[in-house]
């Protein structure tokens, strides 16, 4: 059995940036470009794949994630979402729910955590996951027959493909980000450790913990700047561990009972008509949406 897990916020933001706001407005005159773009993406996915089990995860904890308590600057480099975008996120959630899809959002855990928690739980029940996202963070979840799918670029890869893409194995992604950091999420990493160096270190030592325990070996490796890297790692070992913690998906995140195994439920025609009217969807999108619940 296959469980589709959609990193919804990525596709909402993509639509927000790519579609002109002045050409898509809702019934109250607010921008609706992100809703229109997300709806087109989601309907195309449903038409193409016809998933029986699917969960759509949204970032609701953009400023209140448990990671902010660990490291207050986490994602502090991002501008707060404007009210017009927050309204659209709400409409996107309502649209997905009205289609009968399992929607996940939490005030303290991010979409990645909810995806990881559901995949981990359902993998034990015989499911394999298709994680729909371009985010490399999510590659740490891949195992067995799991697949990650960058829908916009139509690229798919499994756990073995992670090594080809990033130079490290799927289970090393969090360690890798602990070393390199992640500018998008404002995760610091270790100053002076780039992607190639991080990959080479993990190739040799296997894990961040092993690397930090065996730093005396590092200066003797055939690695450019090995002695300097050893000095940096001694100085910033705590920062590396913190960065890894920030990058690690919390697969123990709590899941609401209604999610169950993500099986598609009967859609709500009245709710779907309401959200489409509020977003002022055109006739073709309305027809496609209604076909999904008929």
Structure characterization notes:
The protein has 294 residues and is an alpha/beta fold. The model has no long low-confidence stretch (mean pLDDT 95). It is elongated. It has helices at residues 8-18, 33-49, 66-70, 83-98, 111-123, 159-166, 173-180, 195-205, 208-213, 226-235, 237-247, 269-279, 283-293; strands at residues 2-7, 54-57, 102-104, 128-132, 147-150, 155-157. A six-stranded mixed beta sheet has the order 3-2-1-4-5-6, sandwiched between helices. A hairpin with a 4-residue loop joins strand 5 (147-150) and strand 6 (155-157). Helix 1 (8-18) packs across helix 2 (33-49), helix 2 packs across helix 13 (283-293) and helix 7 (173-180) crosses helix 8 (195-205).
Give the topology.
Elements: E1 2-7, H1 8-18, H2 33-49, E2 54-57, H3 66-70, H4 83-98, E3 102-104, H5 111-123, E4 128-132, E5 147-150, E6 155-157, H6 159-166, H7 173-180, H8 195-205, H9 208-213, H10 226-235, H11 237-247, H12 269-279, H13 283-293
Parallel strand pairs: 1-2, 1-4, 2-3, 4-5
Antiparallel strand pairs: 5-6
Helix pairs in contact: 1-2, 2-4, 2-13, 4-12, 7-8, 7-11, 12-13
**What's the CATH H-level homologous superfamily of the largest domain?**
5'-nuclease
Unreliable runs, pLDDT <50, ≥5 residues? none
Biggest sheet character: 6 strands, mixed
What would you call the structural class? alpha/beta
Q: Tell me, what is the CATH class of the largest domain?
A: Alpha Beta
Strand content: 5-15%
The averaged pLDDT comes out at 95
Total beta-strand segments: 6
Shape: elongated
- The string of secondary-structure elements, in order, is EHHEHHEHEEEHHHHHHHH
With helices defined by DSSP (H or I, 4 residues minimum), what is the helix count? Answer: 13
CATH architecture of the largest domain: 3-Layer(aba) Sandwich
Radius of gyration: 21 Å
Query: In angstroms, what separates the terminal alpha carbons?
Result: 24 Å
How are strands sequenced across the largest beta sheet? 3-2-1-4-5-6
């Amino acid at each position: 059995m296959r469980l589709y897990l959609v990193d919804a916020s990525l596709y909402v933001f993509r639509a927000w940036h790519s579609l002109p706001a002045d050409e898509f407005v809702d019934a109250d005159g607010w921008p609706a470009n992100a809703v229109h773009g997300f709806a087109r993406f989601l309907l195309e996915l449903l038409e193409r794949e016809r998933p029986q089990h699917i969960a759509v995860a949204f970032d609701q904890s953009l400023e209140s994630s448990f990671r902010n308590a660990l490291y207050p600057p986490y994602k502090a480099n991002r501008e707060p979402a404007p009210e017009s975008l927050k309204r659209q996120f709400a409409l996107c959630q309502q649209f997905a729910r009205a289609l009968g899809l399992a929607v996940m959002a939490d005030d303290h855990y991010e979409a990645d955590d909810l995806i990881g928690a559901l995949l981990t739980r359902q993998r034990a029940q015989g499911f394999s996951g298709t994680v729909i996202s371009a985010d490399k963070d999510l590659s740490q979840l891949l195992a067995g027959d799991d697949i990650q799918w960058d829908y916009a670029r139509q690229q798919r890869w499994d756990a073995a493909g992670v090594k080809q893409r990033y130079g490290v194995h799927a289970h090393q992604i969090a360690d890798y980000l602990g070393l390199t950091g992640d500018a998008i999420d404002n995760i610091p990493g270790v100053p002076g450790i780039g992607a190639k160096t991080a990959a080479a270190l993990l190739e040799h030592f296997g894990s961040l913990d092993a690397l930090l325990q065996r730093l005396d070996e590092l200066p003797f490796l055939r690695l450019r700047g090995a002695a300097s890297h050893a000095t940096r790692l001694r100085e910033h070992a705590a920062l590396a561990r913190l960065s890894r913690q920030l990058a690690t998906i919390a697969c123990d995140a709590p899941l609401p009972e209604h999610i169950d195994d993500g099986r598609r439920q009967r859609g709500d025609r009245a709710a779907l008509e309401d959200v489409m009217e509020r977003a002022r969807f055109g006739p073709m999108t309305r027809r496609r949406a209604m076909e999904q619940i008929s």
